[in-house]
Amino acid sequence: MRFLRLRWLPVLFVPGILLISSHALAADLTLDEVVRGLDTLWVLIAAFLVFFMQAGFGMVEAGFIRAKNTVNILMKNFIDYGVASIMFFIMGYAFMFGNGSGFIGTEGFGLSNAPNPSGVSLYAFFLFQAAFCGAAATIVAGAMSERMKFRSYLMYTVFISAVVYPIVGHWVWSGAGWLSSMGFADFAGSTVVHATGGFAALAGVLFLGPRIGKFGPDGSPRAVPGHSLPLAALGVFILWFGWFGFNPGSALAVSNGEKIALIATNTNLAAAAGAISAMITVWIKYGKPDLSMTMNGALAGLVAITAPCAFVMPGEAIVIGLIAGIIVVYGVLFLDYVRIDDPVGAIPVHGFNGVWGTLAVGLFGHRSLGLAHEGLFHGGGLTQLGIQALGVAACTLFVFVSMSAVFYFIHSTFGLRVSRDEELRGLDIDEHGMEAYSGFQVFTTQ
Amino acid sequence: MRFLRLRWLPVLFVPGILLISSHALAADLTLDEVVRGLDTLWVLIAAFLVFFMQAGFGMVEAGFIRAKNTVNILMKNFIDYGVASIMFFIMGYAFMFGNGSGFIGTEGFGLSNAPNPSGVSLYAFFLFQAAFCGAAATIVAGAMSERMKFRSYLMYTVFISAVVYPIVGHWVWSGAGWLSSMGFADFAGSTVVHATGGFAALAGVLFLGPRIGKFGPDGSPRAVPGHSLPLAALGVFILWFGWFGFNPGSALAVSNGEKIALIATNTNLAAAAGAISAMITVWIKYGKPDLSMTMNGALAGLVAITAPCAFVMPGEAIVIGLIAGIIVVYGVLFLDYVRIDDPVGAIPVHGFNGVWGTLAVGLFGHRSLGLAHEGLFHGGGLTQLGIQALGVAACTLFVFVSMSAVFYFIHSTFGLRVSRDEELRGLDIDEHGMEAYSGFQVFTTQ
Amino acid sequence: MRFLRLRWLPVLFVPGILLISSHALAADLTLDEVVRGLDTLWVLIAAFLVFFMQAGFGMVEAGFIRAKNTVNILMKNFIDYGVASIMFFIMGYAFMFGNGSGFIGTEGFGLSNAPNPSGVSLYAFFLFQAAFCGAAATIVAGAMSERMKFRSYLMYTVFISAVVYPIVGHWVWSGAGWLSSMGFADFAGSTVVHATGGFAALAGVLFLGPRIGKFGPDGSPRAVPGHSLPLAALGVFILWFGWFGFNPGSALAVSNGEKIALIATNTNLAAAAGAISAMITVWIKYGKPDLSMTMNGALAGLVAITAPCAFVMPGEAIVIGLIAGIIVVYGVLFLDYVRIDDPVGAIPVHGFNGVWGTLAVGLFGHRSLGLAHEGLFHGGGLTQLGIQALGVAACTLFVFVSMSAVFYFIHSTFGLRVSRDEELRGLDIDEHGMEAYSGFQVFTTQ
């Protein structure tokens, strides 16, 4: 191979030289091998971007809560990704992609003899999927923040990443699941990742109850402002950036570059539209454009476009995003109305908009873009929409029930909630023995 | 295609499997198709990096201003990107790349039947260009910060992203513009993006006037230190990182890997040189190495290398960066001298160094690297330099005049500036009803 | 080439169009050219990620120290990368990769006629290596923080990036070094980058002495908590993200996609395991899960997997990471015990775990994955382990001795340490004339 021009063969350990030279000595690359290398590279880069979303979640969650609980949320954020990485390796991947029944996979533990439904390297596919699993797990941290024990959070994260998330994933993405065989379409996880995280969070906060002082004696909600909107803003930008791996990466192959480009463009337009419509909605309702809500609007648009990103055109992506931005504002108001306390808005963003995005496939999707049935607005009737509704209902119900059992178990054994004193003082001191902002005066009273 | 090894055909919605399998059923990939996929992938990754620069701009602008206006600048930063994404989709792309005259394009609205001058997917090319448009728009936010109404900023951003930026872009990058047909060379946008942003900012601050207290009764400037240099530092690192998409991505094709690698190396060296020379300049002048100026020096180097990055060699990139670092220091002093208040240094960084970088093409550029005429320092005489001077003069004049009209219009209708009371109290409370750092004691007096 | 479909040939300066069209006029691409373009692209993306680690280092170091020294550490962080970029261009690359003896290279200054041992563009390979050099340089900043003069830091950084790091690199990665010819294996730099940085830091802090107040009159260590754990957490996430360029990028070629995917997966699992084991170790020892230590555990896992990432399987990567997390906790305690003051834990993370990772190659490495000898735990005996021990001992000894000479020289001429008054007041005011957090009340007393 002329292009190698290695001067010092045999070399030993210039990084990578070994790989090149050993290959060069074997045989020239075929086009198929190059394509597989290219696809693997793309899936890996997408996996790196999805990993980086973990930083985005961490910054959003930290920025939206009070300074006194910041170490605790960052700790949860680190450890849920760590636990998800290890547990998904040991058993999650097997439950999700292993051969088995339509309900759960039963082989491939520790990636040994693990099936690989993708056209890329098993390890690349695993890393991409493990990062998704970490995202589903960490969504819950924000909703349950400022009052949940760290030890109990650790237990929760084992269950969701080892069992609950993989089962939902098996239904939809394994190729053998009962939902995918019905034609259920969730391209990159509005249901599998976001609604799963959002409805697990809903189960959790129902067991946990609201923070002290969130609702007045008459039940009226009080604002508990986040301690650092710049951190939260950075987090939203990082999430938006990472979503360019999350959605386009799910195409798994670059051979269809047109499709990946369409997905990326749809993702960006839906996020932009969500930010704008949430800003306008809250501006009309309260007279001022609110940054927190605008940022949640962008995230809502991203969650909503996740399922349909491959099946719709850019103009439709904008409409989906606009509606997502409205849903998130009214979703936050609804939770306040029913006295459910979700400090960062994780349930409206990931739960409600996960449902909306999944349904949007059945409304706006095109058969010509690979969907089983034409969407309702293109004359396809209710078939695809019905499948979508059934699928998202089944998944969220399963998640809500199974996670309720998990949280009930933790509640009955270790307890979910810190003491009243600890909550008032902040979790950072009692749970971790440290402050987030040493040297600064922070007012820990509400 | 052997490499696919799909076990469970037919599968429906494992993400991407559908794409692979549908392709596999059609025909094997040709080398041309692989190249196009590879090029599309590269342009998309570059687009993601350029998008991420928005986070960099946000953090730099927030860090360099006072805490009491932080929510406002972050809000502007989110929304200008959102508006740019949507407006560039609806009409900006058509004005910029559509067929039409040498002055403006007139077809391709909503990307429908939009011409695609690149060798990659239309959507990939669009996303990359839309992210550039967002960058041009957001440059202005920093210069006009701490005193401009949010509502008026929103109006401004519609004009620049829908009309003004696309027109300049059409002149230089559409392939049909009057400037490109003269041989004007601006590889990645020292003029098109940065000088456009910088001179729009200049027009804006002239209408807006300086912040209360910036200049004493005798006209002497007062330092108004930024509230978080760590945020600003992070922002500069993110911008530097994103510039690796901005400049090398503009090559649009990886087939010429040597060129892309040269561009990336030049970009990095100019940034490094700009940081060092700004540090030394300010150290000599004031006795201490100043972090703000060092960071602006890095950005100045990046802006200056943006036009010539493909046409010069690494040693020349270092020289261009060294000069950029000196220009930014004296540029800041000059603005202080003429009592123009630019809180973050956006005009010296993007405006003055945008001009410098554009001229540097005519000084240091090589014909062998694809330039129309040899640069002055390589014996090519004044031809290319003259074209560069004409081009950057035409563009900055057009931007300054048209944006002055826009700002005059907004000034006469909604007003550009917040009230004196609001400015003193900070824009976050009055414009958005929230604080950036709840729980911290922040001194809002100057 | 059908795929170009250029409508407006000849075009001049649509970014990149020139490149494509000039190519199209010449000849079609061969598969070899495509592979070289693809490999170059991958190395460049990896270089961008490694560059971004600089932001990670900056945030970790800033977050772990006190607010009063934050400007100083950020300044060091910017400038060491700037100096490393320029010095590695002028001479470092020549010393590292130039032809010469087994000890040092002697040609290729300013990249002119520079040898290129890789299969990718020289500039891409240079940029990747320059970013590595910057990483080695910046590791020292954290360990010597809060008391070292900026001017002296500037001198140090010239020496390490121009001479010391390139010599170690030459021994191991040039293809002509005496260590690589013995079969020493350090895939991505546990020794070359991390132990080099860690042991240079050790030499530095021995000359510098501990911060005022770090050790009580009886020698007992006092905690000096960092001023912003969210910044530090963000930094760790950025480093982890960047490591996906650092380790997999070192493979330099995507043709062996399986290998790159394995490396990325190993990198992630070791980091996750390091975080978890450090958390558990400190939890057992002190009763609370500590965020700082958990984050250092993740970094420890990343450092430790850097040498063996290509030579071990995922299960082994987990074990290597678990041990790394324990080493970092006891390493911190050990430094406290011997009264060495390393404010951010750089020596345990990069020094001790650099050694551990290098030795782990000899314990866990597989011949089938390209290692010269089978590792001890796979029945290969002590051969590879012996080579690894010799190599890491030689490198760390060389670094420690040569950097001691450098620090002794600086100490004797300009002085290493700021005055007592300046240290108590904070370096930001005296060295740079500015504060990191203007408008916030920061308590600068310990």
Protein architecture, described:
- 3 copies of one chain form a homotrimer.
- Chain A is 65% helix and 0% strand.
- Chain A has helices at residues 17-26, 31-64, 70-97, 122-143, 150-173, 190-208, 229-249, 257-286, 291-306, 314-337, 346-364, 383-413, 420-425, 427-432.
- Chain A is mostly helical and 446 residues long.
- Chain A has 14 helices and no strands.
- The first copy, chain A, is globular and about 65 Å long.
- Chain A has a single domain (31-432), classed as Ammonium transporter fold, CATH 1.10.3430.
- In chain A, α5 runs antiparallel to α12 (383-413) and α10 runs antiparallel to α11.
- At the A-B interface, α2, α7, α8, α9 and α10 of A face α1, α2, α3 and α4 of B.
Provide tags for this entry.
homotrimer; 446 residues; mainly alpha; 65% helix; 0% strand; globular; disordered N terminus
* Secondary-structure element series of chain A: HHHHHHHHHHHHHH
Rg of chain A to the nearest angstrom?
23 Å
- Under CATH at level 1, the class of chain A stands as Mainly Alpha
The portion of residues forming beta strands of chain A comes to: under 5%
Oligomer: homotrimer
Give the helix proportion of chain A (percent range). 55-70%
Q: What is the averaged pLDDT score of chain A? A: 92
Strand tally of chain A: 0
Give me the CATH superfamily of chain A. Ammonium transporter AmtB like domains
- Report the principal-axis shape of chain A: globular
List the domain count of chain A as a whole number: 1
